[in-house]
Amino acid sequence: MVVSGIRSRLVALAAACALAVPLGGAALAQQEGGTLTVALPAQPETFNPVLLGELSSSIVYNALFAPLVAQDPETFDLDPYLATEWEPNEAVDAWTFHLHPDATWHDGTPVTADDVVFTFERILDPEENSPGLADVGHIDRVVADDERTVTFHLSEVDGMFPDRLSLGGLQPLPKHLLEDYDSLSDAVEFNTERPVGNGPFMMQVAETGSHVELVRYDDFFLGRPYLDRVIFSIVPDMNVRVARLRAGDISWTDIEPTHARSLENDPNVQVIPVSSSRYAILDFAFEGPYAHLFEDPRVRIAMAHAVDHQTILEGVGLGRGWLMNDRTIPAVLSWIPDPDFEPHAYDMERAQELLAEAGWTRGDDGILVNDEGERFEFYILVDRGNVQREQIGLILQESFEDLGMDVEFVAGERTGRWIEETRDRVFPVRMAEFPIPNVDWFRRIYTTEGPNARGYSNPELDALVEQAIRTGDREEQGELYKRAQELHHADPSVIPFFLREQLVAARADVRDLPEGELKLTTPYLHLVWLDR
Amino acid sequence: MHRYVLQRLVASLLVLLVVVTVTFAMIQMAPGGLSILMNPNLSPAEAARLAANLGLDRPVHQQYLQWIGNFLTGDLGQSLSYGGRSVLRMVTERLPATLLLGGVAALVTLVVGIPLGILAARRQDGPVDQLVSLFASIGLATPNFWLGIMLIVLFSVELGWLPSSGMRTLGGDDGLIDRTRHLILPVIVLATSNLAELVRYTRSSWLEVIRLDYVLVARSKGLSDRAVDRKHVLKNALIPVITVFGVSLPRLVGGSAIVETLFSWPGLGQLAVDAALRRDTPLILGITIFVSVAVVLSNLLIDLLYPLLDPRIQYS
Question: What is the ipTM of this complex?
Fold first, then answer.
């Protein structure tokens, strides 16, 4: 198992403390006490991880409820959490998880395998509307082998099952408090005011529209948290978040690159660049009225050659990020070897050659036409309001027009035209984003009806993905994903741009902040302390 | 008078019905749908299943009639996005914060705006009038969000005198002084544009009234300026001013979406923004009902005030 960034840091810190204390040297030891105030963008919809919620909900419930397996916010690898270890059976269609022996609910009741069974039975019930069902719908049954051991029997082979459990929204719930409800949605008080979790912090008060206050759970099974309290303060406006951080009213928030310069000059604030878990892509349609335009891989590769990635990174990303270089899996995932290919570099001449090979030549008006006289015209669909994607879309429009394509820029509401055309698969190309790969990644490339919104299907690639799913071996999975990327490079379904550097800012006295997106870091809040 | 009030109340019910119907129709006509159903990770089948479980797959007229039926029995339904919480409870939880902010802002507007307007009118074209007019113009022209951010930067970040947002210090002292300090910046921002408007209306109304014949007659009878102002000018000049103030009253209940969002003020305005962004139909309708009732009642209240200011106005 790969040693995660957080665990390795803890080991190093412990060693440093052990050395420092006898020498009476630097005060490396963590200090107890204090309140961490974290900015939340919106009122959480629910504190129940199993129900439908949005970003603010997950930021908070990740500190209240322990997942079986956590995703390291720095390396995106798996960390043991409520489950200390796990293993598949030989056929890799059943996974057994061993629960931490000291885990208890915030009311003191031990966390048992029955809680896990209860929770997943509820998730698998379509009437519960749990979004987790999409990730674990292939669970056949969940069995409590003993008080602290639980086995998931699957209806199909799945070597990535532990990755699925790390996605969030699948944290076990306390059976003894919820079993009497016909539906989890009926437990309104539990869901919105008084959740009883098993994470590092427990609910103190949820004041709607204002803040959520959590207090330390002394008996947390991974060790007593250092902070006394964590307050999630609802601050919808980013400028106000920054102002409140500078004023000392907030300890920790995400920020935009435009705020970084002023904050970097503030001695009371630390700006921490972290890798985002998503990157922007241009998505080609393989179904619908425009699919024939992009059917030939040479056309897609030509369009990839027309993109000046460095200019996009500098101009749109303000230089903060890492080029994807045609990889569909960012290099941050160290367990996946580098794919063996040369990126489709910015080369307009090569792009023109490829288009000509594919049968597209310029007509009298300078627009590309094929042998049948069809003009190469389409639109780029962008979700309005996402400034980066809008800007990339405008640059692409110009680049593709330089190739001789007639391109329109269409900004549609994300909850309107953008999602409707995505669901109906009628867009020509659209700006979207890809997540850091785990199970999600394969779902977006593999021939499925769900998140693979573009209708892309490559049987060879499907075969590699299926192989990766069949094995529980990380190294083998990495090798298969490497080959899948190489295959995808020759027959691209998307043009990936850059992995955005996300910025987090905190007061200078906040120590041992996990370097990751807020949502992924809140399960590790017990490691954070204040240097007072 | 009683009959008049009764007629107005009956008419108000019709107004409410129209407002709710139009709001419901607008939500349905807007592209997209409930935010939780718009998750691109959901397959069409998963989205359809969720919609069915939430009752959103039924014909629109059935959803509408069911909502109206529930409303008539006092049930505003459950929020679709906030874990099934009662809409009535959510709205009433947020109402006090909005009333506090709006009430204090309205008080400041009245207490400062009317005297300033009168002062400007009485010193017409002098330095004081020009200064007040300049202030009013700037107040009207300054966007709320810009003014708010500037005040936060100046008084919270640079000077450290006032808290930047919220209703009270989280996890700390939350006594009267603390809450008052938290009120200052949002009240200034919320009151500024109303105040500027009221100053201008008061000034122009006052200048109009002092030129009327009955005021000239009063002065020619030898009454002192103070007596003329108090007995003849003030009441008459205030009639249009009260109208303007009445129009701004619904903001007391509706809250200011911008100010509440900017200052993280846990009121109805912030909730309205959230509900709209999440396309939470029951919550949007619940807030609309409250705001509509406030508009109707404040208009009625203003109408009932007129006879007190001007005995010539009578309702029969």
Answer: 0.77
